[in-house]
Amino acid sequence: MRSFFSKFKDGLKKTTPTFYKIFGRVGGIFSGKKLDAASLEELEEALYGADFGVETTMEIIEEIQAAYKKDKDLRGQDAARIGASVLARVLEGAEPTEDWLGSARPEVICLIGVNGSGKTTTTAKLGWKFKEDGKDVVLAACDTFRAAANEQIKTWAERLDLRLVSSHHNADAAAVAFDAYQAAKDKDVLIVDTAGRLHTKSNLMEELKKIRRVLQKHDESAPHHSWLVVDGSLGSNSIEQARKFHEAFGLTGLIITKLDGTSRGGAIAGIYRELGIPIYFVGLGEQKEDLQPFTVKNYCNAIFGLEEA
């Protein structure tokens, strides 16, 4: 099986012509040559283009510039290592702890976010990952608002042989959550897929709160995890969205999807700086195996074109 590092590098370049659009551009600047003023300018442009934002970009540039002033023979790979180190500091704490999955039966994970972020497919892929790890998993199809959502998650559940609790279009989502919890008693994990919603839609935000209240009738600490699923291709536009959801629902984690086809995945740094909550998984493709645990080291190395170490 290919490593996460390989998947990350391949995922980032899959749909970016010549792997120069952004992520490859950052790494390509450091391809073994000596650093110079032109390559520093090019790096700054590439980081801005990838939506790393002013703060993170300037921290990276300033540290590399300081090293360059001390050593005019500084080589690209040395500068890349400095850049990766700075980015790793920015993302310190972004990885969840190894024992993040608690001992509740079931441990309830609620996935929320806007339409098109990939919640439903992520729900199924996440369920498959837990199943592969030997966990008993139940999925709750609480996106009763979108007509196609039930069929979509049913198709995934059948394909991956996952237990699913669902209802009909426009059914009470909180009632589905209640039934799903009943079905998941004494199981390991319950994953709740919710309807896509904008933070400005008060009725749908109230529905989320109702789902939470219903779950807490079974377990006052549920949901144990409230994760925002963010479309990585939205870049910095996703930061405000994430902040609003965090204010309304108290997020405990993030999943960043669609990183395989974007040139704007640098917004991961901005979202983390804004919210300070862990990034649990990243989506690097359409296959079930392409939902991968996020690791700071592999992300930073992939950005700066460094080899796995």
Automatic annotation (TrEMBL):
<dbReference type="InterPro" id="IPR013822">
    <property type="entry name" value="Signal_recog_particl_SRP54_hlx"/>
</dbReference>
<dbReference type="GO" id="GO:0005737">
    <property type="term" value="C:cytoplasm"/>
</dbReference>
<feature type="binding site">
    <location>
        <begin position="113"/>
        <end position="120"/>
    </location>
    <ligand>
        <name>GTP</name>
    </ligand>
</feature>
<dbReference type="InterPro" id="IPR004390">
    <property type="entry name" value="SR_rcpt_FtsY"/>
</dbReference>
<feature type="domain" description="SRP54-type proteins GTP-binding">
    <location>
        <begin position="106"/>
        <end position="305"/>
    </location>
</feature>
<keyword id="KW-0963">Cytoplasm</keyword>
<dbReference type="InterPro" id="IPR036225">
    <property type="entry name" value="SRP/SRP_N"/>
</dbReference>
<dbReference type="GO" id="GO:0006614">
    <property type="term" value="P:SRP-dependent cotranslational protein targeting to membrane"/>
</dbReference>
<feature type="binding site">
    <location>
        <begin position="257"/>
        <end position="260"/>
    </location>
    <ligand>
        <name>GTP</name>
    </ligand>
</feature>
<dbReference type="GO" id="GO:0005886">
    <property type="term" value="C:plasma membrane"/>
</dbReference>
<comment type="similarity">
    <text>Belongs to the GTP-binding SRP family. FtsY subfamily.</text>
</comment>
<keyword id="KW-0675">Receptor</keyword>
<dbReference type="InterPro" id="IPR000897">
    <property type="entry name" value="SRP54_GTPase_dom"/>
</dbReference>
<dbReference type="GO" id="GO:0003924">
    <property type="term" value="F:GTPase activity"/>
</dbReference>
<dbReference type="InterPro" id="IPR027417">
    <property type="entry name" value="P-loop_NTPase"/>
</dbReference>
<feature type="domain" description="Signal recognition particle SRP54 helical bundle">
    <location>
        <begin position="8"/>
        <end position="91"/>
    </location>
</feature>
<feature type="binding site">
    <location>
        <begin position="193"/>
        <end position="197"/>
    </location>
    <ligand>
        <name>GTP</name>
    </ligand>
</feature>
<protein>
    <recommendedName>
        <fullName>Signal recognition particle receptor FtsY</fullName>
        <ecNumber>3.6.5.4</ecNumber>
    </recommendedName>
</protein>
<keyword id="KW-0342">GTP-binding</keyword>
<dbReference type="Pfam" id="PF00448">
    <property type="entry name" value="SRP54"/>
</dbReference>
<feature type="domain" description="AAA+ ATPase">
    <location>
        <begin position="105"/>
        <end position="281"/>
    </location>
</feature>
<dbReference type="Pfam" id="PF02881">
    <property type="entry name" value="SRP54_N"/>
</dbReference>
<dbReference type="InterPro" id="IPR003593">
    <property type="entry name" value="AAA+_ATPase"/>
</dbReference>
<keyword id="KW-0378">Hydrolase</keyword>
<comment type="subunit">
    <text>Part of the signal recognition particle protein translocation system, which is composed of SRP and FtsY.</text>
</comment>
<keyword id="KW-1003">Cell membrane</keyword>
<dbReference type="GO" id="GO:0005525">
    <property type="term" value="F:GTP binding"/>
</dbReference>
<dbReference type="InterPro" id="IPR042101">
    <property type="entry name" value="SRP54_N_sf"/>
</dbReference>
<keyword id="KW-0472">Membrane</keyword>
<keyword id="KW-0547">Nucleotide-binding</keyword>
<dbReference type="GO" id="GO:0005047">
    <property type="term" value="F:signal recognition particle binding"/>
</dbReference>
<comment type="function">
    <text>Involved in targeting and insertion of nascent membrane proteins into the cytoplasmic membrane. Acts as a receptor for the complex formed by the signal recognition particle (SRP) and the ribosome-nascent chain (RNC).</text>
</comment>
